[in-house]
Amino acid sequence: MRLANEPLLMELADRFYSGVTDDRVLRALYPDADLTAAARHLGWFLVEFWGGPITYSKVRGYPSLRIRHIPFPITAELRDRWLGHMRTALAEVAIDEPDKAKLWQWFTAEAEVLVNVP
């Protein structure tokens, strides 16, 4: 897979949000009853970030994780919950192991940077 494989990255986002749906702590951060839009936005972001079409920028604007997450108090616990659901989603999607490793490395680094509450 080249990392910009749109169908696989969109599936990754869908599977990730399937886990978030059942996580009462993370779920509380999302005001919408339906997480379909959140999954779509994450998928578009990943596709664009990894070299695919720029749908995210066209629809949502400049793709800055820090700017988008500033309003949310993100603790180490939330980071770890988020990463746990992403690890599960990565295991469920047919992405080559070297690409999974690249994605996981990126997810863990970005999640660490987004923690904004001690």
From TrEMBL:
GO terms for molecular function: heme binding; metal ion binding; oxygen binding; oxygen carrier activity. Keywords: Heme, Iron, Metal-binding, Transport. Heme binds at H41. Pfam families: Bac_globin. Belongs to the truncated hemoglobin family. Group II subfamily. This is Hemoglobin.
